[in-house]
Structures are given as structure tokens and as C-alpha cells.
Design a protein that fits this description.
six-stranded parallel β-sheet, nicotinate phosphoribosyltransferase, alpha/beta, TIM Barrel, 2 domains
């Protein structure tokens, strides 16, 4: 799978609009911004993610001969338009928030400035890439905040909505603070640590459970994590205690056990007692099974002796909030600000910047949304990262993005770090931007 996917992974109307623009000579610079209109229920913030894949896409965007042939034969487009697409490359610039930055409604996290046809064509894929990873990173960050000090592993590939979704979910979860993923391809592609245990089928394939445990431990002597709940969880824990003595003679140490069903807190307490009584205090307990941030918070609050968690379906599908109300909108064309005034979907015009303020301890106190050139207090969050169609500097490694996210989460006001809805974070619209809105509205279409 190529991160810089095919140019025709787009909506038809992008191509039909492009032909219209070109026929009218509308190729002046345009400015589009990506933002989220409102937070999903239960969310107090979002985490920006997906910029790396957007930059990959823009740098390599072109049409293949097969795509050009289809466009030419479909009966909708002129020969001149197909010839234009044959030479198409993205030549514009991008300003964006660093991946891992927390943000709030109406704040642009990415701005594209390019000739109108170029900025228009990329809309669909840019939204597609930013929307999904931002959605998953924001969900993963809530899990991290709900289970401080616990190791979290992405288990969601098998329930993800396709292969690309599974890979990008692993990336988004890791940058949000997860420790590892079970998705092997994500480890290869993104350098994410990989982690996994065993399935119930491995146990069932053997005539007895203890033999299954031994075979697995001998096959994975450095990574022996044994699944306990195929039959009787506590009975399985006692088998692990018996087996551990034999394995130690061979230089093999059981690293951990996994619980995947039932009352996880009760099972964890019983298993911990069995392991400790058997001299296996160093063996960790790992839990999985339809978990999300609320289940994690409940287990932590109950004092369950669980060292780590596998989070799958509800993370990779963001089950409680499966989409963001996001948009990529034209804010300026040919040097003139543009404003959409649709009911419930009005936009703020012009090239904008987000200025962030913090207190003496570095905790976020409020943002100001203003025109790019405004002189307002705070740190500007959108920075140039691509010009003339090429990156201005190498992208940071994923580990650096992950560290940035951790710092961002630590800077959130305490009320925003909880799982319950809090009073909205203050985002103020600068008077200069409000004045531009007023002038455009008075001028009419």
C-alpha cells in the first residue's frame, strides 16, 4: 500500500470543478483551511494527526497513464483537460499545526495555499487523511489519560475498516501515547514497537492447557505471555505457577498472563494472588476484551492489579464518536477573502492563525483565532512545512511526535483531562477577524 495514494482517490466533483476552473482561466492563488466545526459528545479536545501522510501525498501527487486513459474515455472531460492532468503536480505551500498538538473547534490545523485547481483537487484526500488519524489519536489520548502508568497496546486491526485504517490507527494511537501495536505491518512501516500474546485457538488446538502454555513459552522464550481464560481463569493461573518452575530450569521466564473476558478486576485480583503465592510476583497481568477509556478508568479506580491493556475495536473504530464534523473550506481567492454564510456552516474568512496562551506553569489558558498578520499575544501554532510542493525540512520521527503529544496532554487544564464533558476551552475570535466578517457580510455575495 502506497501512503501517497492514487490521484483518483477523490470525489468526481473535484475533477468536474477543475475543468470548469481551467476553462475560465481561474488559476490564481487560493487558500483553503481544514478545521473541525464542533467537538463530538464527551470530547473536551482533539489531537492533530495525519500531517505526515498529507505531505507524502502532496509531494508525490500525479496521475498515472491508466487513470488518464479512464478520464479521457469516461465522456465527461475534454482532451485539453486530460493533457493538463498529465502534467499535474502540486506546487503550493502548507502551514500546519505540529502533529500531536491539541486543538479546539473552528481552529484550522492545516492551511493549503496553491493555484485554485491544485488546492481544490487535494480536498478529498486531505480530509480523508487528517480526519481519520485525528479521530483515532484523540480517542487514544483519552485512553492514555484514563490509565496513567499503564502500558497500552493497539489490538484493533482485525476490526478496523480496512487495511489502511488499521495501519493509520496504529500510528495515531502510538503518537497519542500507546506503547505498542499488534499490527506487524505498522511496526515495519512506522517503527512502532510490536506486541502480542496468543489466541484461544492455540490453547484449544492442544489436548491440555498446560501443554499449550509450555509449547508457547518454549517457542517464544523471551516473550512468553500466556492467555488464561480459555476454560477456567484461576485454574489456568495455577497451571502457570506449576509450569514456571520447569521453565526456569531451561532458562525461560514467563513474562506475563492475559485476561480477556469476565469480570477483569475480580479475575486480576485472584490471579495476582495465585501468582504471588507461587513466587511469580514479577509476572505482569495484561487485560483485553472490548475495552475503551471508560472501562480503563473504572478498572483503575477499582484498584485492579492490571499492568497493561490491549485496546481494539472501540479504539480503531472510535466507536462512541466515529466521525468528526470537519471541513476544508476556501477562505481566500486571488487576494480576496471569501466567506461561506450557509446556515449552521458559516466560515471565518481569510488566512488565519491560532495564537495560544499559557500560564506560568505552562498550562493552556486560552487561544485567539485571528488573521495571520494580526499582532496578538500568544504562540502561533500553524508553521510552514511545505513550499513549492516540497517539504521545508525532514519530518520529525514518530517518537518525537509522541513526546510532543505527551507534553501537550500535560498542558491541558485538569478539567479537560477528564472523561466527562467540561466547560469549553476558551477560544476567542480577534476583533480584526470579526471586522472582516462584518465587512464581507455587508458587501454581500
Amino acid at each position: 500500500m502506497n501512503d501517497a495514494a492514487t490521484a483518483t482517490l477523490t470525489d468526481l466533483y473535484q475533477l468536474t470543478m477543475l475543468q470548469g476552473y481551467l476553462e475560465q482561466g481561474m488559476t490564481a492563488p487560493a487558500v483553503f483551511e481544514f478545521f473541525v466545526r464542533r467537538l463530538p459528545p464527551q470530547r473536551n479536545f482533539l489531537v492533530a494527526a495525519g500531517l505526515e501522510q498529507v505531505l507524502d501525498y502532496l509531494e508525490s501527487l500525479c496521475f498515472t497513464p491508466e487513470e488518464l486513459d479512464w478520464i479521457g474515455r469516461c465522456g465527461r472531460f475534454s482532451r485539453a483537460f486530460v493533457d493538463y492532468l498529465a502534467e499535474f503536480r502540486f506546487t503550493g505551500s502548507v502551514h500546519a499545526m505540529a502533529e500531536g498538538t491539541v486543538f479546539f473547534p473552528d481552529e484550522p490545523i492545516l492551511r493549503v495555499t496553491a493555484p485554485l485547481p491544485e488546492a481544490q483537487l487535494v480536498e478529498t484526500r486531505v480530509i480523508n487523511l487528517l480526519h481519520f488519524q485525528t479521530l483515532i489519536a484523540s480517542k487514544a489520548a483519552r485512553c492514555v489519560l484514563a490509565a496513567p502508568g499503564r502500558s497500552l497496546v493497539d489490538f484493533g486491526l482485525r476490526r478496523a475498516h480496512g487495511a489502511e485504517a488499521g495501519l493509520y490507527a496504529a500510528r495515531a494511537a502510538y503518537l497519542a501515547g500507546f506503547a505498542a501495536t499488534a499490527t506487524v505491518a505498522a511496526g515495519i512501516r512506522f517503527g512502532i514497537p510490536v506486541s502480542g500474546t496468543m489466541a484461544h485457538s492455540f490453547i484449544q488446538a492442544h489436548a491440555d492447557e498446560e501443554t499449550a502454555f509450555e509449547h508457547f513459552a518454549r517457542a517464544q522464550p523471551e516473550h512468553a505471555v500466556l492467555l488464561l481464560d480459555t476454560y477456567d481463569t484461576e485454574a489456568a493461573a495455577r497451571k502457570v505457577v506449576r509450569l514456571a518452575a520447569r521453565l526456569r530450569a531451561a532458562g525461560i521466564h514467563v513474562r506475563g498472563v492475559r485476561l480477556d473476558s469476565g469480570d477483569l478486576a475480580a479475575h486480576a485480583r485472584a490471579v495476582r494472588a495465585i501468582l504471588d503465592a507461587g513466587g511469580l510476583r514479577e509476572v505482569e497481568i495484561f487485560a483485553s476484551g472490548n475495552l475503551d477509556e471508560h472501562a480503563l478508568a473504572a478498572l483503575v479506580a477499582a484498584g485492579a492489579p492490571i499492568d497493561g491493556f490491549g485496546i481494539g475495536t472501540r479504539l480503531d473504530t472510535s466507536a462512541d464518536a466515529p466521525y468528526l464534523d470537519c471541513a476544508y473550506k476556501l477562505e481566500e481567492y486571488d487576494g480576496h477573502a471569501r466567506r461561506k454564510r450557509s446556515e449552521g456552516k458559516a466560515t471565518l474568512p481569510g488566512r488565519k492563525q491560532v495564537f495560544r496562551r499559557t500560564d506560568a506553569d505552562g498550562i493552556l489558558t486560552g487561544d485567539i483565532l485571528a488573521l495571520e498578520e494580526a499582532d496578538v499575544p500568544g504562540r502561533a501554532l500553524l508553521a510552514p512545512c511545505l513550499a513549492d510542493g516540497r517539504r521545508l525540512q525532514p519530518s520529525p520521527p514518530l517518537t518525537a511526535i509522541r513526546a510532543h503529544t505527551a507534553r501537550e496532554l500535560a498542558r491541558l487544564p485538569p478539567a479537560l483531562r477528564t472523561l466527562e464533558p467540561a466547560a469549553p476551552y476558551p477560544v476567542t475570535i480577534d476583533p480584526g477577524l470579526l471586522d472582516l466578517v462584518r465587512r464581507l457580510d455587508e458587501a454581500g455575495p
